[in-house]
Amino acid sequence: MSVVGINTSITFIGKVLEEGATLLRVNEIIVDQYAGGGGASIGITDGLNRSVDIAINHSKSAIELHKVNHPHTDHYCESIFDVCPLEATKGRPVGLLWASPDCKHHSRAAGNRPVDKNIRCLSWSVLKWAAMVPVRVIHMENVEELRKWGPVEEFEQGKWRPIKEKEGETFQAFIDALTTGLNKSHPAWEEIRESLGPDFAHYDKLEKGLGYELEHEILKAHEYGAPTHRQRLFIVARNDGFPICWPKPTHGNGLLPYKNTANIVDWSLPVKSIFNRKKPLVKNTMIRLAKGFQRFIVEHSDPFIVPDDQSVSFIAETTEGKVQYKARTGGSISIDGQQKFDPLGNVISENNEVLVVSHLVKFKGTNLGHVLDSPLHTICCGNHLSECRTLLIKVNDDQRANLLTKPMTCFTKNDQFGIVKIKGELYMLVDVGMRFLSPRELFNAQGFKENYIIDQDSKGNKFSQASQRERCGNSVPPPLAKALVEANFSYCQSLNVA
């Protein structure tokens, strides 16, 4: 959607930069508001060939993660509204201000839960910076529901909810203040003054308008080389007279192939059998797993088969304790070098062909997951994405006559035979294992590089896995940030006027 300005789509054609060169003007700096996982900063660094100068976040763990990966950046661990733009910039103009305000209380994922009106107001910080210091280009990222940003009402003491009839009213006020001006009678002024406070001395600038050209579009991370379906709203505003540019997708039909989930799965990590656990999985989990098995293996025309160069591990509960065993597609099943191990007690002969298949399970909402040959679903802050690994053996001629040939519709165990047909061949279930994706796999799915530090700060203090997942869920996919930055700064560079 083009709001104000020229809607121009280009591919990065800027001239090749020499080492140390940058697309910013002399003395310009880069500010990353709400810097959490560091994805925006990585994308900006890759796109502009220089580090972010200022990073801000109220979370200590977020700042510590950012600091260990961006040691030359000035970090502010405090509320965005408590940081004075004049003091932080030290008189330097801002070439790029990137803002990714907390999205939880705008997202549809919140459902009908009460919202925090203070968190919904974080975007006003962008106006504060643009009014107080010279900011040439603004990039802002959030959930697409930000377009419905409107006033809230108190329906119980201390509980707030959006007013449906006024959806989009506040979002339009935000745009008006950045561009042509906000009418003094607009109801959003109360929220703006409450957020920016009485000491903010530039309300007149917002009424007149800050003079930016502005557009907003929905961009999808998997179309720019990240192995995730993350879809977000991006706002681009600039006041330097150059057109706003949107990057053309690099991956898709007729382009480079999408990067898929299988690319980020660490096959060396063992999965734990869902059967015979000392503490059984709850009924709803088993139902979800069974439905996923039915959809992505039994009924799927082309289940994802784990590559035969990967030896995968399962952990099973036995009467003697936990046992870890290995299997390989086209190979064998073994434990401690002994062949034919089967936790479900099926008869395995030496000429049984092994098949290992895998799919993604999603423990959120009604979505069951997906096959691994597509990008990963959107990563959130919680622990809800799992790899489900199924071990099968091909039924040989001797076994065929003795087994039920009806395709299985649920998991079976012990003395029951689970039979499934894959590509016209019958296979017998040996085991099903599951594990949650690791933080490293999730960061890889966002498009971070393997050497990006996610597990400790600069002093060696470890981050919990929950903290790592939260940082990842709040991060911007670096390839997407890079594409957007390159599009809007390489245009000026190609004209030799940046």
Automatic annotation (TrEMBL):
EC number(s) given by UniProt: 2.1.1.37
Pfam families with a match to the protein in the record: DNA_methylase
Keyword flag Transferase: yes
InterPro entries, per database record: C5-Methyltransferase, C5_MeTfrase, SAM-dependent_MTases_sf
Gene Ontology molecular-function annotations: DNA (cytosine-5-)-methyltransferase activity; DNA binding
GO biological process, alphabetically ordered: DNA restriction-modification system; methylation; negative regulation of gene expression via chromosomal CpG island methylation
Listed name of the protein: DNA (cytosine-5-)-methyltransferase
Lineage: Bacteria, Pseudomonadati, Pseudomonadota, Gammaproteobacteria, Vibrionales
